[in-house]
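Collaborator request, handled under Task 6.
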Amino acid sequence: MSEITNAIKQICDEKGLSYEAVIATIESALAAAYRKDYGEKNQNIKVEYNPENNQTKVFDIKTVVEDVPEEELIEEGEEIVKPLNEAVIVDGEEEIKKRFNPKTEIQLTEAKELNKKNKLGDEIKTELETHAEYGRMAAQTAKQVIIQRLREAERDMVFSEFKDKEHEVITGFVQRREGRLILVDLGRATGIIPPEEQVRSERYVPGERLKFYVKEVAITPKGPEIVLSRTSEEILKKVFYLEIPEISNGLVEIKSVAREAGNRSKVAVAASNDNIDPIGSCVGQRGSRIQTIIRELGGEKIDIIEYHEDPETFIANALAPAKVEQVRLVTETHQAYISVKDDQLSLAIGKDGQNVRLAAHLTGWNIDIAGDGSVGTPAEETEGNGTRTTESTDGTETTEGTEGENEGKELEAVEKTEEKTAELVKEKTKKKTKSKKTSEKTEVLDATTEEVVSQLEVSSETENNVSEEEK
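Structure tokens returned to the collaborator:
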């Protein structure tokens, strides 16, 4: 094995390229160097290189085409200004007319003169003289071609590798933040997380190991661009698939997923066998499996719901942990009217309507929750003092009340305002009274102090007089 062969294999190992790709790069570089020093115009130079004996063969390769009129020929020494492919309109339709290119093509008549067996479409290889030495400029050209071609081959290899992983979950390390983008080290490539694919509650610390969903892989002038996501619902499905053997084996199936990244998710699962508990399989012993998934998603809460073919049962399950009293469906409008007890209403709606919003997205039904113990269409609920919350599958939430209830709330608010005002007035009056009493007490104390001082002065004078008389 020659030294050149060893060097080529070393490059293949370092760059992760195939042996044939590196050989093709070397052949392109040698062809560019030959063209620079010894090539002639209208020659299509190709080089065949044998790394074992370090020998090269140079050929001028042309393709046989039909004869063309003389006025269309590109004469030797004439620069190619017009495009080789021109658009021509024939019978109202645009057709592409290909012009003759003497660099890569040869006319059939000339090809017959070389060999009578030549026919249209054949490739004619004319061997050229091989030179052992090249000039400095040719060597520099060959070096640039090798560097460029190796870089292109490496980009193509990375693109094809990650294109196969598109819509999959991969592991990477957070590299750094550039503006609003997060750069992720994926080994042979660097992925990006755009702002809309980032979870607001997550802090991406450099060096942190996370799982990412490969949303898109595209080729750009700077190389492959790998767009990653942490908010996609697919990442939740893939993590369940990776962490729960029953799902990967097909014994438990994920029917639907509803997710608000970073806050809470609902996952509907069903078992293919009656002897398998789908929820227990996902939770694991003492919650070991679900806790692993929660850690992978940065502490996001996950509700596992048992899927049911009956929409009423499925919707009731989806509103867990709230207990549903009754469900009524209107299939024409795809609307579900839910009745819960008053103490379960806030639990069914959730914080900022999150629970009912996720349930609507999970089931695909527009959910209308009533907390007065009655179920019916909005027209049937004009009496009573109940409150109804409606959640559609697009995430729009409305909270409605009856006219009597709204008036009662307004009166109650007015009464509370009046009570607060009266309390404030009483407090101010008490403060004034206290301050007045305090001032009066201060005046009395001042008068008493003055009397005591005057009495002490009188007694001291009397004592002085007595002492003088005794003397």
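The cover message to the collaborator said: "Residues 38 and 72 are 28 Å apart (CA to CA). The chain has twelve helices and 19 strands. Please let us know whether this matches your experimental observations."
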